[in-house]
Amino acid sequence: MSVALRAESRKLLTTQVWFWMFLLQLGLTLLVACLVSAFSKTTDTGVPIESVLNGVVGFSVLIASVLGVIGITGEYRHLTATPTFLSVPRRGTVIGAKLLTYFVAGLLLGVVAVGVAVAVAAPWLSARGFEVDLGSDNAVRIMVGGIVASGIWGVIGVGVGALLRNQVAAVVGIVLYRFLIEGILSAIPKVQNAYPYLPGGATASLLQGQDTGNGAPFTLLSPWVGGLLLLGYGLIFAILGSMLTVRRDVT
Question: How many helices (H) and strands (E) does the chain have?
C-alpha cells in the first residue's frame, strides 16, 4: 500500500490538474466571499459569514469530487492504467491508494476554502458593522463539516469514476446530480422526505445539523449520522468501482 500511496501522490502533484483545481477553488472562494461581503444588508435574513462559508464549501465539495473522478478516469483516458496495474498487481490496492489520496486532497481543498473565506470575509463584514462570531456553533459546524465533506466527496469522486471510467460522463453526472437532480427530488412532495438520506442531504446535515431552515418540510439528520451516511456512500461507490475494476480489462 505504501508504494501505491507514493505513486498516487506523485501522479497528483506532478500533473497540472491539482494546480488548476486549486486555482479554481481559490477563485470561486474569493468570488463568493467578496460578493456576500460587499452586498449583504442588515435587513437580509441569515448570518453573512455563514452564507459565505456555506457557499465556498458547496464549491469545494464539487471540486473535490471532480478531482477524484479525474484521478481514476485519467488512467483510462491517458492509457496509463496498464502500467499502473502492472506496477501494483492488486487493483484493489490501487483503488484504495487513490481513495486515501483524494480524501486528503479533498480535505486540503476544504481547508483552503474555509481559510480564504474567513480571511477575506470576516474583516470585511466586521468593517461594515456585521457581527462575526467564528466560534458560534453554526460557524464551527460549517467549517469543520465542510472540510470533512470535501474529503468524503473526493472519495465519492474516485468511486463514481471507477464505476463509469468515462471522465466526461462521470464529471457531468456529478455536476448534474449536485446542482439539478437533488434539487428536483427535494421539491417533489412524495420524494422530498427521502432527501435527508441522499448524498446532498447527508452533506447538508454535516453543515446545518438537524435544522430544517427556511421552512423545509423535512428534518436533516444529525451531523454525525449524516457524516457517516455520506462516508457510506463513498465507500459503496468505491467498493463497487473496485470490484468492477478488478474484473474489467484495462485496455
Answer: 10, 0
| pLDDT tens-digit map of 119-146 | 999 999 999 888 888 988 889 999 999 9
Say how many CA atoms lie within 13 Å of 83 toward its Cβ. 8
Exposure string (b/e) for 123-157, b if CB count within 10 Å is 16 or more?
Answer: ebbeeeebebeeeeebbebbbbbbbbbbbbbbbbb
pTM of the prediction? Answer: 0.85
CB-based contact 82:250 (threshold 8 Å): yes
Residue among 190, 149, 156 nearest 173 (CA): 156
Q: Pick the closest to residue 170 from 62, 58, 12 (CA basis).
A: 62
Nearest 5°: the CA angle 243, 245, 250 is 160
Question: In sequence order, what DSSP letters do the residues of 88-122 get, joined into one string?
Answer: S--HHHHHHHHHHHHHHHHHHHHHHHHHHHHHHHH
Q: Do 77 and 167 touch, CB atoms closer than 8 A? A: yes
Neighbours of 51 (CB within 10 A): 19
The domain tally of the chain equals 1
Amino acid at 126: S
Q: Where are the beta strands (DSSP E) in the chain?
A: none
Q: Are 102 and 61 in contact (CB under 8 A)?
A: no
Cell triple for 44: 437580509
CB 110 within 8 A of CB 64: yes
Residues 143 and 53 sit within 8 Å (Cβ to Cβ): yes
Which range marks the domain in which residue 132 is found?
A: 2-247
Contact at 8 Å (CB) between 178 and 188?
Answer: no
Query: What tens digit of pLDDT does each residue of 156-169 get?
Result: 998 888 888 788 99
